């Protein structure tokens, strides 16, 4: 663990900043990587990427939506989402249709194959969620979710 004590006065300015070990973005990234390491084998077995899964899961949760809404709910940039949607459409996991009130816009939804993918990947993911809850504690996991939601809310305002 890095030393968080104030460096000597003759240290470079950057040495006075928060220790790397106490960087919130790095701590969140480390935790994300540790969590995702347990989910990746299931995603690989279904030949689906993390981003593709986020898009599919968002469609399963929210139903039909525009690409911009999907990008926001799945935390995927629009350029990446465009590529992802093209791939998912080729695999017949999603479909697009023109929006009735705006023919320039498309509405995206899951196909029956996409819905089946949600069920299949979900079945493979639940044991990992159970493992995390047992290892970390269900109450602590719920508290972590609440604290992360609070943090996001505070930072957005």
Determine the strand fraction and express it as a percent band: 5-15%
Cα separation of the termini: 33 Å
Structural class: mainly alpha
Low-pLDDT stretches are none
Choose one word for the global shape: globular
Radius of gyration (CA) equals 20 Å
- Residues in helices, as a percent range: 55-70%
The biggest sheet, with number of strands, parallel, antiparallel or mixed sense and barrel status, is: 3 strands, antiparallel
Mean pLDDT: 92
User: What is the ordering of alpha helices and beta strands?
Assistant: HHEHHEEHH
Number of strand elements: 3
Q: Order of strands side by side in the largest beta sheet?
A: 1-3-2
Counting H and I runs of at least 4 residues, what is the number of helices? 6
Keywords:
157 residues, mainly alpha, three-stranded antiparallel beta sheet, 6 helices, 3 strands, 11% strand
Helix and strand topology:
Blueprint: H1 24-45, H2 50-62, E1 65-66, H3 67-74, H4 78-90, E2 94-99, E3 102-110, H5 112-136, H6 138-156
Antiparallel strand pairs: 1-3, 2-3
Helix pairs in contact: 1-5, 2-3, 2-5, 5-6
């Amino acid at each position: 663990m890095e030393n968080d004590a104030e460096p000597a006065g003759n240290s470079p300015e950057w040495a006075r900043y928060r220790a790397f070990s106490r960087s919130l973005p790095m701590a969140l990234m480390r935790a994300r990587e540790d969590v995702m390491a347990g989910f990746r084998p299931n995603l690989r077995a279904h030949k689906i990427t993390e981003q593709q899964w986020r898009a599919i899961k968002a469609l399963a949760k929210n139903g039909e939506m525009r690409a911009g809404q999907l990008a926001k709910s799945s935390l995927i940039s629009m350029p990446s989402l465009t590529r992802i949607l093209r791939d998912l459409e080729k695999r017949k996991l999603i479909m697009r249709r023109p929006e009735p009130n705006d023919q320039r816009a498309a509405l995206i939804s899951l196909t029956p194959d996409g819905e089946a993918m949600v069920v299949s990947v979900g079945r493979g993911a639940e044991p990992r969620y159970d493992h995390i809850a047992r290892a970390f504690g269900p109450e602590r996991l719920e508290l972590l979710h609440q604290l992360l939601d609070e943090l996001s809310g505070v930072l957005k305002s």
